[in-house]
Amino acid sequence: MSFLSKQWEGVLSSVPILDFDEGDENDNNLVRHRKFVDNILKRSLELCEKEKQKQLLDKFRLCMTRYLSADATVVNKWLRYSMERSVKELDISLRVDKSYWLWGGLRSYYCLSRKALANANSITTLNLEYMRIKNISRFGSSTAKPIRLLPSLKAMSLKNVHFDTNALLYLTGECPSMESLSLTSCSFANFEICVSNSSLRSFGVKQCKAGEIRVYEAVNLESLTVVSSSFELESMIFRECYNLKYMNIFARHLKVFQLDGCYDVKATINAPKLCDFNFEGYLKSEFSLKAPKLWSASILLWDNWDGEFLNFDGPWKHLPRLRDFLGEFKATKGMTLLVSHFKALIFPKEFRETFSSSSPKLLNLKVLDLAMENAPTNMRDKKHLTNSLLWMAPTLQEINQLEYNEELEMYE
C-alpha cells in the first residue's frame, strides 16, 4: 500500500464501486486480519478522505471473516464515508472469529445503531450479515418530526443478524419505500418477528430463531415465504394483508395460524403440527393445506351473498369453489363458519348427486358452530341447509347456530 499509495491517490475516490473482502473464512490467522485492517481498510480510507471531489458511490461492500470489536471504529468511518458519497447499495458482512465468539457472545458482534444510519438517505439496497441491530426507536427524539433513516430503501436482506427487542419493527418502520425484506438465520431478543410496513411487497423468512411471526398493516404485501424446520416457530399472525397473492409456508412446529383480511391468495401451507387455523377473507382465496393434526378452524367469509342472491352466472357457480375450499380442512374436528347468507351453504340435490364421488369432504368434523347474517327462518330451508352440511361433513354430530353480530365482534 505504501508503494502504491501515490498511484492510487485520486483513484479510490473516483470509482463507483468499493469492494473489500478479507477472504477465506476458515483462515484464523489474526496477524493476517490485522494487516487487512491496517494496510487495506485504514490506508484506503486515508487516501479517499484526502480527495476533495468525490464521485457518487454505486456500491460499497465490506466482508470481514475475523471481525474484532477493535475494528468497529474503522467500520464506522467507512459507513460514514460511503454515505457521504451517497452510496446506493450497502453490503456489510462482519463474521466474528469462532474463538472470539465463545468469549464474548453477542457482545462480539458489530452493533448497528440509529447514529450509524443517520445519513443513509441514498441507500436503495441494504445487505447486512453477522451483526447486532439495536432498537432504533425515535421515542424521546428532540426533533418534532424526525426524518426517516432509510427513505430511499427498496430492498433489505439480513442474514445471521441479532435483533434487540422490537429492533426489527422499528427498523422496518424507518423504510417508507421498502418493497422487499428477507430474513435468513436471524435471532431475536424477544423471540418474535414483528413487521408493519405499508409499502412492503415481498417478505421472506428462512430458518430464523423465533417463536412467532406477526405482520400487520402490510396492505401492499403480495408474496410471503416462510421456511422453518429447525426452530420452534409456533405462531403466525397476518392482519390487513389485503393484496396478498402468494403464500408458501413450511413450518415444522407451527401450531397457530391466523390470516385476517385477504381478498385473493393462493396459499400452500405444510405444517404437520398445526392445530388452530383462522381465516377472514373471500372465497376467491385458495388453500393447499397439509395439516394432519388440525383440531379447529375458524372461517369468516366476506362474500356478499344477500339480496337477490347473488349475481351468479347460472346455478352452482360458487359451489365447486366452496366445496374445494372447505374440503382442505378435512382433518379438523371442530369448525366455526361465518357467512352472510345461509343459501351460500346449500348444495342442491342435483349438485350433490353429480359431484358426490369426487368431492373432498370434512371427514373428521364433529362440531360446527355456524353464524349467518341471514339465517333460515322456516323448516324447509333449515332442512335443506342441514342436508347440505351433512353431505359436506358426513361425520357431523353437532350444529350450533351463533349470533352473527356477536361472532363478528370476536374477530375485530
From TrEMBL:
Q: Where is the F-box/LRR-repeat protein 15/At3g58940/PEG3-like LRR domain?
A: 76-230
Pfam families noted in UniProt: LRR_At5g56370
Q: Which InterPro entries does the protein's record reference? A: At1g61320/At1g61330-like (IPR053772), LRR_dom_sf (IPR032675), LRR_FXL15/At3g58940/PEG3-like (IPR055411)
Which protein, by its recorded name, is this?
Answer: Putative leucine-rich repeat domain, L domain-containing protein
